[in-house]
Amino acid sequence: MHLPDTMQAMVLEQPGKPLVLKTVPLPLPKDRQVLVRIIACGVCRTDLHIVDGELSKPKLPLIIGHEIVGVVVKKGAAVSNLREGDVTGIPWLGYTCGKCRYCKSEKENLCENALFTGYTIDGGYAEYTVAYEKYCFPIPGQYANASGSPLLCAGLIGYRSYTMIGEHVTNLGIYGFGAAAHILIQLAIFQGKKIFAFTREGDANAQTFARKLGATWAGNSSEAPPEKLDAAIIFAPAGNLVPKALLDLDKGGVVVCGGIHMSDIPSFPYSILWEERMIRSVANLTRKDGEQFLKIAPQIPIKTETQTFPLHQANEALLALRNGKIQGAAVLVMSPRG
Length: 338
Ligand SMILES: [Zn+2]
Ligand SMILES: [Zn+2]
Known about the structure:
By secondary structure, this protein is of the alpha/beta class. It has 2 domains: 6-150 and 303-333, Quinone Oxidoreductase, Chain A, domain 1, CATH 3.90.180; 165-281, Rossmann fold. It is built from 7 helices and 17 strands. It has helices at residues 45-51, 154-162, 179-190, 204-212, 241-248, 287-296, 314-322, and strands spanning 6-11, 20-25, 33-43, 68-75, 87-90, 93-95, 115-116, 128-132, 137-138, 171-175, 194-199, 217-220, 229-234, 249-257, 278-281, 306-310, 329-333. The strands form 4 sheets. Strands 3, 4, 5, 8, 9, 16 and 17 form a 7-stranded mixed sheet that branches. Strands 12-11-10-13-14-15 form a 6-stranded parallel sheet, with helices on both faces. Helix 2 crosses helix 3 (179-190). The radius of gyration is 20 Å and the shape is globular. The two termini are 13 Å apart. 47% of the residues are buried. Bound molecules: zinc ion (2 copies). One zinc ion is lined by residues 44, 46, 66, 92, 153.
């Protein structure tokens, strides 16, 4: 296959500055890596946290983006499973060491030597990228396009958060109704849960969207739900939602914080945590999460709602996400050059 020597990429040179469209050398796959021509890359809130400098250790300069759907166009010498022409999904978890105590105890999401796509290694706001074969997921046929991108982080992190809510949950509250929530609600309803969706104050569009997807109730995050919740998942990066969610929870319930960054959590009286309520976070993903979720998604089937942008409009896509203007998920779609 003829490959170009260079590619277009939107590059983060410094946090706090807009991404810059650049022509950069085509990356070369190492022994255990594949070179992937990117079809689409989702725009995640984590990308905003990186651009804003809220996550402190980005590689610089950096190509962000960790919801990549693409086609393998070249493979390293030691690649064993993927073949040229395979459609593959590249998630946030880009590499783990396999040797640390977390890797050895099935917690590779906490690996001490992990690399993260679009953060500590280059990601998907580009025409091509390289990825370690073992961290690529097979993508079911119907998702081999922009609609598959949001599954790779919004979907996966939502799924991992969902696996943390415990048994016997009927009433599930979701705080922040963006990309992750619009995917997770489909799985949760499929499994018989009642969903209570909390949005920004007065965000009637998001509330209508949540009801359309089957939410039992949708309202402002300051409102009390009509019934007590068995569990709550917070996707919005607002720490003040933690005590609010505790107030909405029934005894023994858990608040799961699904984001990588959150504003400070205000202090709250012990009485709202009492009675065995819990607060926990979710960090990254394991490959097992990805395999499980990507198996379930086509069975439901989960349908993502995407708003697409060309690569060179990545800054506009990030701004739209920041301003709450995206219904569902924003996705960059690459146009192949001839
Ligand atoms: Zn490790
Ligand atoms: Zn993400």
